[in-house]
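Weekly modeling sync, notes
Attendees: S.R. (lead), two postdocs, one rotation student

Agenda item 3: backlog of single-chain predictions. S.R. asked that every request posted to the team notebook include the full sequence so nobody has to chase files. The rotation student volunteered to paste the first one in as an example of the format we agreed on. Action items at the bottom.

Example entry:
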Amino acid sequence: MRKMRSKGACTMDKSGNRKSITIKINGQEKTFEENKKDRLNPENQLAATREKAEEESFDWILADHDDEKRNEIINPVPLKKSKALIDFSGNTKNRLSLIAILSAILLGTCFGVIILKTITTDDGTTATEKAPASLAPKETQSAESVNTNLKTYMVQGGVFSTESSARALQKNIKQKGVPAEIFALDGKYYIFVGTAGSLEESKGLASYHKQNQVDAFWKEVSFSTAIKGGEKERELLNEMSTLYGTLSQFTSGLLNGSVSTWDQEVLNKQVKAVNNSSENVSAEALVTMKKNISSAAELLNKYKSSKDPEQLVLAQEQLLLYLKGYQSIGGN
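Predicted structure, as returned to the notebook:
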């Protein structure tokens, strides 16, 4: 707290019925006038004199704002009681109307649930009844479809957009003593005049056929098929495909001169495997393919004794027929 003291000087001026009193406070003079009527008695004058003396010298006490701290009191806001959502204190008509509305809602919900369950049950029954109609015949269910691919290297004699044009060239090529078969691939008709076991052998076979005035080119082809049947049918197809690879390699190599002999033991073993696998197989396409592959093996054996290249050309023709049968199974 800071204290400030103020002192005053007092002078009196008498004139007539008035008295003037001049008080000097902090260098400023203030004049006060007094009438006789206002004159106090001796006791009051003495008291006034004492009060003036006290006023002349007093202490000013000023609050130090730096030290002042205010304590703010926050009064909590009283919570208002929420009104009830539904006032049941109304008259009887309002209560009856409310009960009627709630009852209608409850009954409507119950009926909706019952109808929904009924519709769901009907749909489930219909789906169950229709399920047997989508089942395939017993023959289709018992036959499993297996997709297989056969990659081979072909010698191409021509390609056409129409089958009739391809047949005209096929006839011309066969008149020259060269095998020729038409294959439909990718919307076009290819004439293949030979098959080989590798890309290099297909190039050599193409050179061989060019000697007979045939425009031949090599081409890698992948045939796909989907055979339906049991384990025996799949086993027969696999064994025949293995024998096909061996025969195409031997016959093409002997024609172009890249090989002069072959492993007869391997050939005999593969032929025997095909014969064993073909037992109890009645699928017409597989039976025809088995005849083609077996004929090619027999012609190769004839060449061994006769050394007649014509036997190799005929063997190549049987291999081309085998590939046509392979393609027909897959519907290509």
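Discussion: group reviewed the output briefly. Residues 2-62 form one domain.
Action items: rotation student to repeat for the remaining queue; S.R. to check formatting next week.
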